[in-house]
Design brief:
Layout (H helix, E strand, L loop, with lengths): L4 H31 L1 E8 L4 H16 L4 E7 L5 H12 L5 E5 L5 E3 L1 H8 L2 E4 L4 E3 L28 H20 L4 H9 L3 E3 H6 L5 E2 L3 H8 L3 E4 L2 E4 L6 E4 L4 H9 L2 H20 L5 H19 L4 H16 L8 H16 L13 H28 L13 E4 L6 E6 L2 E7 L8 E8 L2 E6 L5
Parallel strand pairs: 1-2, 1-11, 2-3, 3-5, 4-6, 5-8, 14-16
Antiparallel strand pairs: 6-7, 9-10, 12-13, 12-15, 13-14, 15-16
Helix pairs in contact: 2-3, 2-9, 3-4, 5-6, 10-11, 10-14, 12-13, 13-14
C-alpha cells in the first residue's frame, strides 16, 4: 500500500523542525558552557611588560570565548607605570567582568597593585593581606632629601618639582580609577601622596575593596549574581558554577618576567663581571668566561625591559673595578672601601626612576650580600697569592739552585754535569773529578756554576 505524498511531506517537515529545535538548544547550551568559564590569571611578582602582556592576553581571550569573568589572583610589590597603565586600560575597557583577589595570606597589592585592584569590577582581598603605599619610590624613600638648614623660617623646603609633578599625575590617575569604580577617591589619592597602606579589613571598611574572602570558593559564592556595569550596561555576574580555566604564561613571557626583576639584573651584572675577570686572569678555563658572557647577554635583555639610570650603572661598574684593582694595587684598603661604597650607592640608584617605575634593588637582600661575596672572593685571592709567594719554587730554572748533581766529565774549569735527568754545561772555581757530586750555585743562560757538594754551607 503506497503512502500518501502529503503525509510524507508532513512527517519530513516535522523531523526537520525537530532537528532545527535541537540545533538551537545545542547552540544555546554551547554558549552557556562557554559563558560558564572563569579564566584565572596569577600575578606573583612585579608588574612589567611580560606580566602585562600575559594579563591583557587573558582578557582578550576571555572576550573572544565569552567567558563569565577573569579572576586575577594578585601579589605584587609594584612595577612599571607604563605596564600598569596598559593593564588598567584593558580592564576598564573589557567586555568581560574582571575580578582582583589579593592572595594568599601575607600577600600585598603595593603601589602598582593598588591601581590594578581599584580598576577591577570586583575587588577582594584575603585576610592577612594589605593594599596601598603607592607613592613613587626614590633613592630617599619617596621624598627628596631636604637641604642642610631646612627652608625659610625653619619650615621644610618644597619638594623637588619633578617628583611633585610625578606625584600629582599619579594621584589624579588613581583618583580617576577609583571614581570610575565608585570606590574611595580620597583614600586612593592619599595612597599615592602619603603612601598610606591598610589591611584587608580596613580596606573593606573604607570602601577601597568590595569584600574580604577566605578562599576562591568563598569569593565566587559571595559575588555570584551581583549586578555590575559593563560598557554602560548592567551585567549579572554568573560565576557560582563556573569552570576555572587557568591561563599560564608562555615560555617567552616567563623568561622576560624573570628578567624584569631589578634584583635579577644586578645579580647578572655581578656574575658577568666576576666570570669575565676570572677568565682574563686564567685564560682557558672557559666555564667562567662563558658564564660571564651569558650573564651579560641576559643583562642586555633585562635592560631593554627595565628603565635604568646611566649614572647608577656607571657607579656600579666603577665599584666593581675598584674592588678588582685592590687585588693588584697596594692601597691599604682605600680602593676596597671606595669600591664597596660606589657599588652600594650605584646599586641603589641604577633603577631609581620614579617617573616610570617603582621597582628598586633590595639593599639588604641583594646589594649587601653581593658586596660581601665579592669581599670574600677578594680575600681568598689575596690569601692564595700570599701562599704562592711564600712557598718554595718548584718549577722553572731558578728552582735548580741548590740541587746536587753528578759530574759527567772533569771540570777544569769547564765540563758537563748531569742533574734532574739533563746534561748541562758547567763551570767551577776548582777542579772537579768525574763522578764527584756537585752543588749548583748559579745559572747563567744555559751554563751552571757549581762546586763540590762536600763544601756545603
Amino acid at each position: 500500500m503506497r503512502k500518501h505524498p502529503r503525509r510524507i511531506c508532513e512527517r519530513f517537515a516535522t523531523a526537520l523542525l525537530a532537528v532545527i529545535v535541537l540545533a538551537i538548544h545545542a547552540a544555546a547550551f554551547s554558549g552557556s558552557a562557554a559563558a560558564a568559564q572563569l579564566f584565572v590569571v596569577t600575578i606573583d611578582g612585579s608588574i612589567n611588560p611580560a606580566s602585562a602582556n600575559y594579563l591583557i592576553g587573558a582578557i582578550e581571550r576571555a572576550e573572544k570565548e565569552n567567558a563569565a569573568a577573569v579572576l586575577i589572583e594578585l601579589d605584587t610589590p609594584g612595577g612599571l607605570v607604563s605596564a600598569t597603565q596598559d593593564i588598567i586600560k584593558a580592564m576598564l575597557n573589557s567586555s568581560v567582568p574582571t575580578i582582583v583577589f589579593v592572595m594568599p595570606r601575607g600577600a600585598s597589592a603595593t603601589s602598582a597593585g593598588t591601581f590594578i585592584t581599584l580598576a577591577a569590577n570586583v575587588a577582594a582581598m584575603m585576610p592577612g593581606t594589605s593594599i596601598g603605599a603607592a607613592h613613587p619610590v626614590s633613592l630617599f624613600g619617596g621624598e627628596s632629601p631636604p637641604p642642610a638648614g631646612g627652608g625659610e623660617d625653619g619650615q621644610a623646603p618644597a619638594r623637588n618639582a619633578v617628583e611633585q609633578k610625578i606625584e600629582n599625575y599619579l594621584a589624579a590617575y588613581v583618583e580617576s580609577i577609583a571614581k570610575e569604580r565608585n570606590r574611595n577617591v580620597e583614600w586612593a589619592g592619599e595612597a599615592v601622596r602619603n603612601s598610606v597602606a591598610v589591611t584587608a579589613e580596613e580596606a573593606l571598611e573604607l570602601n577601597v575593596i568590595d569584600l574580604v574572602a577566605s578562599s576562591r570558593e568563598d569569593l565566587l559564592a559571595t559575588i555570584h549574581g551581583r549586578i555590575l556595569t559593563i560598557e554602560d550596561a548592567e551585567h549579572t555576574l554568573d560565576v557560582a558554577g563556573a569552570t576555572a580555566v587557568r591561563v599560564e604564561m608562555t615560555l617567552l613571557q616567563s623568561i622576560f618576567n624573570f628578567l624584569s626583576d631589578p634584583n635579577v639584573a644586578t645579580l647578572l651584572l655581578a656574575i658577568g663581571a666576576i666570570g669575565l675577570y676570572m677568565e682574563f686572569q686564567s685564560p682557558g678555563l672557559i666555564v667562567p668566561g662563558a658564564t660571564g658572557v651569558v650573564a651579560f647577554i641576559l643583562l642586555g635583555f633585562a635592560l631593554q625591559i627595565l628603565p635604568f639610570s646611566w649614572i647608577g650603572g656607571l657607579l656600579l661598574l666603577l665599584g666593581i673595578a675598584l674592588l678588582i684593582a685592590e687585588l693588584f694595587i697596594t692601597s691599604f684598603g682605600l680602593l676596597f672601601a671606595a669600591g664597596v661604597t660606589f657599588f652600594l650607592v650605584g646599586g641603589t640608584m641604577v633603577f631609581d626612576r620614579p617617573e616610570v617605575s617603582d621597582l628598586t634593588v633590595s639593599f639588604w637582600e641583594v646589594l649587601v650580600p653581593i658586596a660581601a661575596a665579592m669581599t670574600v672572593l677578594g680575600l681568598f685571592i689575596v690569601y692564595s697569592l700570599g701562599r704562592t709567594f711564600r712557598s718554595q719554587q718548584t718549577a722553572g730554572i731558578d728552582e735548580m739552585i741548590g740541587l746536587v748533581g753528578r759530574c759527567e766529565t772533569a771540570i777544569d774549569p769547564k765540563g758537563k754535569v748531569f742533574v734532574r735527568g739533563e746534561y748541562w754545561n758547567s763551570v767551577a772555581d776548582e777542579s772537579i773529578r768525574v763522578g764527584d757530586a756537585v752543588e749548583i750555585l748559579e745559572i747563567k743562560g744555559l751554563t751552571l756554576r757549581v762546586r763540590r757538594a762536600s763544601q756545603t754551607r
